[in-house]
Amino acid sequence: MARKSRKNTEGSSAVQVMPPKRVFQTAIYVRISVENERKIEADSIGTQIQMLKDFASQMPELSIYDVYCDDDITGTNFARPEFSRMMNDVRDRNVNCIMVKDLSRLGRNYLESGEYIEKVFPFFGIRFIAINDRIDTFEKPIDISVQLKNMANEMYAKDISKKIRSTMKSLQAQGKFIGSQPPYGYMRNPEDKYALLIDPETAPVVREMFQKILDGYTVHNITLQFNEREIPSPGRYKYDKGLVKNAKFRDSVWFFPTLRRMLSDPIYLGWIQNGKYESHFHKGGNKCVKVPKEDWIIIKGVHEPIIDEETFNAVQEILTVKQTEGANIGRYDSKGNQESILRGKLRCGECGKSMAIRKKKNHGVVQYWYICPMHEHYNSSYCTKKSIKKEQMEQLVFTLIKKQMQLYVDARQLVADLNRHASSRGKYEIYQEQIKNTEKQIAHYAQMKASLYQDYSEGLLTEADYITVGQDYARKMDDLKIFMASLSRDALKYAPEYTGSEKWAKRVEAFQQQEQLSREMVEAFIDMITVYEDGRTEVAFRNMDELEAVLYQASERRKEDMRYAV
């Protein structure tokens, strides 16, 4: 064999040619479980998909083949439409990588999940990635012990959470300040992070706001004065001091709710109120829940007060009177006799705040308006949207609701009429017979698959044959389940008692004869109403996707009827 020269030609350099990376056709699988499990999950389908796509974008060898989404499907078994579709693509060799957020998205039945991870996926040469669990079988094989470790980790996390809660309870009982940021008017004691000291920069502002209430100023007046004098708001002050980094606090100003809340806070008396919220991380529930006031931990005389008790109590009496006078503002007009039936549903499109009802008198004529509180309190420098007449706004909403109800009624009636035809009845009966036959076939293959293990345990089947034949039966069942789901959807088109959306059916039945807008009608149909300064109004209806499905169904059935009538 000829020897290779060790010398490099002048001006040349050695080039190392890297083999091209293998490209994995990746299936993104996401799942949100049934309603009782959904309540304790912070995920949404969209969040999971975006997380997985972002991860894939950082891995050049991953090419997304398709997204498989099982929404409102339990994870305790694998009879899921989209999971079945994904496995069909696996068997057809369209997919050679499956990516999930974590192992629980694949399934909560650890034994069955283990069979897929340890046997089925390796058999088909599938690379399996679980992002949050840091699992990638391309880098390191996985075994069932991983899931057992996850179970142990979950138990450990719950134990740690309980211990942290116990420690926090102890600190709360001692009157320690455990908040992330000291309240406006105080600063954290550099020698004891659980203690507060008076802040010489902001404490005078706190004293001034209490004194102004005693002098007859309203909370709104004080808010305007503080902004005009450019006194840094609590958020702005923390941003300027570097205590918070979020740029949204850079230009924050004083607002009525902020100042009102400060005027009622006994922290300025030297009291500490702990235990207002309780975390439930260890239970797997919501992050935190409110605790009844009678169960709060209140410790007096913990730190130096900014406000004496006599002043504080006097201010509370004044605020209580004001609150009683304005208790119905937002729900009722300033005189308390006109209900705002759009409360909580009507928002200003310019600033995003909820709009409230007000009474105006012009040349002796009383009119009611929905106003933007930001514009009312702080003028157009904060929000340009002024107001819209109550009668005009409510009539528009009522008209739109009536139109949507009529669309639903007409579409449902059209389909129901067509389904009375003999041809439609015949198709419906054919679909029902097909569904029954498909159910029988699924049960047959399920029984065949179950009997395989007996043959495998007795040595009549090798492990490879057990997996191959089992997957063949599983594929046939998956195909049949997908087919049956399609049959069921199609059968509904020809159902003798076609109702369309059950939710819309109930609402229409309850409100179809109503002649004017009511609070109950608004809550039943409206998700949100947004009004803009340029006159635009956007109305978001509840369950609009279900109404659109009924309208589409009516359109398709009409086309079908016309086609066969020719």
Structural notes for this entry:
With about 575 residues, this protein is of the alpha/beta class. It contains 18 helices and 17 strands. The protein has helices at about 35-40, 45-55, 80-90, 105, 110-125, 145-175, 205-215, 220-230, 235-240, 255-265, 310-325, 375-380, 390-420, 420-455, 465-490, 500-510, 520-525, 545-565, and strands at about 25-30, 60-70, 95-100, 125-130, 135, 185-190, 190-200, 270-275, 275-280, 290, 295-300, 345-350, 355-360, 365-370, 385-390, 525-530, 535-540.
In one word, what is the shape? flat
Q: Roughly how many Å is the radius of gyration?
A: 33 Å
Q: What structural class should be given to the helix and strand makeup?
A: alpha/beta
Strand content: 5-15%
Helical segment count: 18
| Average pLDDT figure | 80
Keywords summarizing the entry:
566 residues; alpha/beta; five-stranded mixed sheet; three-stranded mixed sheet; 18 helices; 15% strand; flat; disordered N terminus
Short structural summary:
This protein has helices at residues 35-38, 45-57, 81-91, 103-106, 110-123, 145-173, 203-214, 219-228, 234-240, 256-263, 309-325, 373-378, 390-419, 422-457, 463-492, 502-511, 519-525, 544-565, and strands at residues 24-32, 62-71, 97-100, 127-130, 135-136, 186-189, 192-198, 272-274, 277-279, 288-290, 297-299, 346-348, 356-362, 365-371, 387-389, 526-531, 537-541. It has 566 residues and is an alpha/beta fold.
Helix-strand layout with pairing:
Elements: E1 24-32, H1 35-38, H2 45-57, E2 62-71, H3 81-91, E3 97-100, H4 103-106, H5 110-123, E4 127-130, E5 135-136, H6 145-173, E6 186-189, E7 192-198, H7 203-214, H8 219-228, H9 234-240, H10 256-263, E8 272-274, E9 277-279, E10 288-290, E11 297-299, H11 309-325, E12 346-348, E13 356-362, E14 365-371, H12 373-378, E15 387-389, H13 390-419, H14 422-457, H15 463-492, H16 502-511, H17 519-525, E16 526-531, E17 537-541, H18 544-565
Helix pairs in contact: 3-15, 7-11, 13-18, 14-15
